[in-house]
Automatic annotation (TrEMBL):
Record-linked Gene3D superfamilies: Spore Coat Polysaccharide Biosynthesis Protein SpsA, Chain A
Protein name: Glycosyltransferase family 2 protein
Domain Glycosyltransferase 2-like, residue spans: 9-157
Organism: Algoriphagus taiwanensis
Coiled coil regions, renumbered to chain: none
Amino acid sequence: MNNPPIVDVIIPAYNEEKSIPKVIGEIPGFVRHIVVANNNSTDQTGEVAKAAGAIVVFEPQKGYGKACLTAMDWIKAQEIQPDIVVFLDGDYSDYPEEMRDLVKPIVDGKAEMVIGSRALGMREKGSMTLPQVFGNWLATTMMKYMQGAKFSDLGPFRAIVWKRLLDLNMVDQNFGWTIEMQIKAHKAGLRYTEVPVNYRKRIGVSKVSGTIKGVIGAGYKIIFTIFKYW
């Protein structure tokens, strides 16, 4: 890219009023729009995010993927489209400033999608549960042998060329969002890579790993998605 790319950020958020201002406050200044998809929060997530400088869209139907799709719809409606979109969680477990490392391979013309890999970076003790670590290993191993995709993580912190993202025709509305993107990107022949990212204990309780129901539900959906696109 000859000119500085236009970068927008999407943050799906459900009850993240304590963490979302920290996340927004540490996003690098080169970002144009920070779009927070308020996923039917029962706290002040939307108000706090707006006060911190984000654009807030509301999605009443719960679901990680559904929130991401709603934010994408807002971006589609803008007169000037972005070059790159970065996805980032709202719980402050990621380090927003590492966004520079995620977009660099795209800006340099070396990749069209970049996954922030927690497996390659430094993880704070207790930041990922044993089921999360095992689930990531199982999913990436299955993807390797079933689809030939080479990933080490399903990390939510990722960057992708906006036009390529639209071409993937994303449809998953909940836990299968990240793996759907990776499988479709691989099958579509997108150039992708991973960069190490650090990971810390999130603020608040995880909606997935924080409950047995969440762990089982996410695990089932991830494995189902792998077979769906096999």
